[in-house]
Design brief:
single chain, mainly beta, Metal Binding Protein, Guanine Nucleotide Exchange Factor, Chain A, 7-stranded mixed β-sheet, 10 strands, 10% helix
Length: 166
């Protein structure tokens, strides 16, 4: 089984609003892309991207996820405040949402699952037109006006900051 390579001793991550944060001690297990309909619906995306972590290697450092029994065999964890998908768990197997990591590039996918449910257009996604701020002035103006309320991609002592409304 391929695993996330060791750069530091742990990876951190959390939800979009910052109410739930975690720390996962390395090494992590395989990183999977699953095209099953439950993963699609749970993530609101074309696939779920999860990385395996042993239960004893995961620490919730701020808050804890709420859970939903998405089937008779598994539970999915998510932030109750913002809805960010965080975990998939079956008995003692726990996978965390790779996109919830502060640096998702540290958990590149190693396995595809349930390919029969993969949308055919995913095989050609690299052929789509690219909207870029250097060539699309309207898009550049929109992006320049964005002020993110998202938790930063690193641990913080407190969130939200003192000068911001919750």
């Amino acid at each position: 089984m391929a695993s996330v390579t060791k750069k530091d001793d742990a990876l951190t991550g959390g939800c979009q609003c910052g109410a739930v944060r975690f720390r996962a001690t390395l090494p992590l297990g395989e990183s999977t892309i699953c095209y099953c309909r439950m993963c699609q619906k749970a993530t609101g995306n074309a696939f779920g991207w999860f990385v395996h972590v042993r239960l004893e290697r995961l620490e919730w450092t701020r808050g804890k996820p709420a859970t939903f029994a998405s089937s008779n065999l598994a539970q999915r964890g998510f932030c109750e405040k913002c809805g960010t998908p965080l975990t998939w768990q079956h008995n003692d197997r726990l996978d965390i949402s790779a996109a919830a990591l502060d640096d998702p590039s540290r958990a590149p996918p190693t396995v595809h699952m349930v390919l029969a449910r993969r949308y055919p257009w995913l095989a050609h996604i690299d052929k789509l037109k690219v909207r870029d701020t250097s060539t699309d002035a309207e898009y550049a103006d929109f992006m320049a006006a964005v002020v993110s309320n998202q938790h930063p991609d690193h641990d913080t002592a407190k969130w939200p900051p003192e000068d911001r409304n919750e």
